[in-house]
Amino acid sequence: MVKKKNTSIKLITLGGIGEIGKNMYLVEVDKDIFIIDAGLMFPEEEMLGIDMVIPDITYVRENKERVKAIFLTHGHEDHIGALSYVLAQVDVPVYGTKLTLALANAKLREQEFTGTANFIEVDSDTTLELDTVQASFFRTNHSIPDSVGVCIHTSEGIIVYTGDFKFDQGATKLYKAEVGKMAAIGDQGVLCLLSDSTEAEVPGYTTSETKVEQEMSNAFYNAPGRIIAACFASDINRIQHIFNAASENGRKVTVVGKSLEQIYHIALDLGYLEVDEDLIIPVSEIKNYQDREIVVLMTGSQGEPIEALQKMAKQSHKLLNIQQGDTVLIAASPLKGSEVFLFKTIDMLFRAGANVISGKRALHVSSHGSQEELKFMINLMKPKFFIPVHGEYKMLKAHRKVALECGLTDQQIVIPDRGDVVEWKEGSIGITGKVPSGNVLIDGIGVGDVGNIVLRDRKLLSQDGILIVVVTLTKQEKKIAAGPEIISRGFVYVRESEKLMDDSTKLVRDIVERNTAKGTFEWASLKQEIRDDLNRSLYEKTKRRPMILPIIMEV
Q1: In three state form, how does the secondary structure of 179-198 look?
Q2: What order of strands is seen across the sheet that includes strand 446-447?
Q3: Distance from CA of residue 314 to its chain's centroid?
Q4: Do 80 and 110 form a contact (C-beta atoms < 8 A)?
Q5: How far is it, in rounded angstroms, from Cα 534 to Cα 539?
Q6: Range 465-554 has CATH code 3.40.640.10
Q7: CATH number of 9-204+366-447
Q8: How far apart are CA 102 and CA 120, in angstroms?
Q9: Whole-angstrom distance, CA of residue 338 vs CA of residue 350
């Protein structure tokens, strides 16, 4: 029990609100700040060229001397992927379970983190005595082992963050949720519950993983040739199902994909995967076995399998390609916005001669709880106040409705926006302020140097291409010495548009000669006139608006 009376309790959501991914939550007790999770989000369709998206951590950077600890709930990238960027700003202990810290350490190496990380291993029985609070944990059921919820014990009650969870009655020992401990936490008094909303719109219960394992084994038994099993690299439960089904059906498994190999070896070394050594073969030995004896467990470079499957269908994968008679099992749901890409990939796989099993059978189920499981969590915790997190706004609203059905009132539920400061004060809860929040875009080694203007330019370039207009003037007379030369990229095919290019060249020459004849002119106004007149002319003739870049030089 916390001995010190806490005078100020605040919750700040920097990510995971109104979106899937990028989970990052701050618990501020008195002057101390505790960070729970630091995740990334994969770019949306309009984020052209962006590698990943992380939360805006301006508030963390501005208050870094007050940050006391980082808690990680589990090892998925949407909860640990931004850790290196946070640790570049704050030097504090990072608490997590054994597998979570191993995966976080691997992610730091992958992102070439050059600082130091003070990792401290905990388990679900650990209790931490910090300056202003206690911290404790409880095991949850998710698609990756060693998943925990986090409890911050204050003098006014416990703040509980569930992390990602579901309640699977058929879960194996490695994945069993500590329901008794959750009930005990609820009996101690929960001030506020922050709960996973991903499947809040889905009625009933999430299908058990035992159903998946059964369907997987049946699919392996009925496949006449090679099996290509595609899943997310960090879905360790699904990976275990694939190994089990291969073993039951007398097949060898080869692992393809850098991120998958890395996570597979970490999980195997730490005892979170049970695999017989003679079950695994290198990809180079596939030719030594009959097709019906082979399973290819694969994923792509970012840990998601669909792009790699498309390469295999196009016969352009560097290690393995689809052949007639293959069975492709897609044991993964597509990332948000990539559903059309998945359907196109499935079509390509069929064209390449494969049989594709995706969506028709329970080869993949959600790793998040549906409505009845969310109700169970609320009833176990019995919170005074409730904040739905980790989901798009419609999911948060659906979770609010679930909470109301459990007996909570509107006054007990808060749905914040990103950056909102939710404060407990005099027995009630409400939004009392806002901190900087939003998306920080990572492109190559650049962090946040690509903003809305750059994205707008990329979008324009992707739509109608670019025209570069080069004119060289003499330094003394300001006469045209060379050009105008017009270079087109992504606008028109020059060889078939000679008249358009000639007309555009003449238009630019006339503009330049008219301006230089005045004796004095401004370079900026000359370039703007070229842009405006050329843009108008090209739109009249092509109904396209390429980006126009005038380059004026002197010799």
Answers
A1: HHHHHHHHHHCEEEEEEECC
A2: 52-55, 439-443, 446-447
A3: 26
A4: no
A5: 8
A6: no
A7: 3.60.15.10
A8: 11
A9: 19
- Displacement of CA 219 from its chain's centroid (Å): 30
202 SS3 class: coil
* CATH code of the domain occupying 209-357: 3.40.50.10710
In the prediction, which pLDDT does 176 show? 93
Instruction: Supply angle C-alpha 507, 511, 514, rounded to 5.
Output: 135
CA 104 to chain centre: 15
Question: According to the model, what pLDDT value does residue 47 have?
Answer: 58
Predicted pLDDT of residue 526: 76
CA angle at 110 for the pair 60 and 338, rounded to the nearest 5°:
85
Task: Profile the chain (555 residues) by mean pLDDT over runs of 10 residues.
Answer: 78 92 92 94 63 85 94 93 91 95 92 88 94 94 94 94 94 92 95 95 92 88 90 89 92 89 91 90 89 88 73 86 89 71 87 82 80 96 95 94 94 93 88 86 58 60 75 73 76 71 79 73 76 80 78 75
User: Looking at residue 414, what is its pLDDT?
Assistant: 94
Quote the pLDDT of residue 446.
Answer: 52
Tokens matching residue 224: 């006449």
Please write down the HEC assignment for all residues of 81-141.
CCHHHHHCCCCCEEEECHHHHHHHHHHHHHCCCCCCCEEEECCCCCEEECCCCEEEEEECE
| CB burial readout 375-407, b (16+ within 10 A) else e | ebbbebbbbbbbbbbbbbeebbebbbebbeeee
- Tokens of residue 536, six digits: 């108008």
- Radius of gyration in angstroms for the set of CA atoms belonging to the chain, rounded to a whole number: 28
Residue owning tokens 């105008």: 484
Q: Taking a C-beta distance cutoff of 8 angstroms, is the pair 371, 359 a contact? A: no
Contact (Cβ atoms closer than 8 angstroms) between residue 149 and residue 126: no
Q: Residue 135: beta bridge partners?
A: 128, 152
Q: Give me the residue spans of the domains in the chain.
A: 9-204+366-447, 209-357, 465-554
Place of tokens 């002197």: 554
Q: Within 13 A of 410's CA, how many CA atoms are on the CB side?
A: 0
Q: Which of 249, 246, 206, 239 is nearest to 362 (CA)?
A: 206
Distance CA 38, CA 86 (A): 7
Q: Give the list of residues 6+ apart from residue 233 with CB closer than 8 angstroms, or none.
A: 257, 259, 260, 262, 263, 299, 303, 304
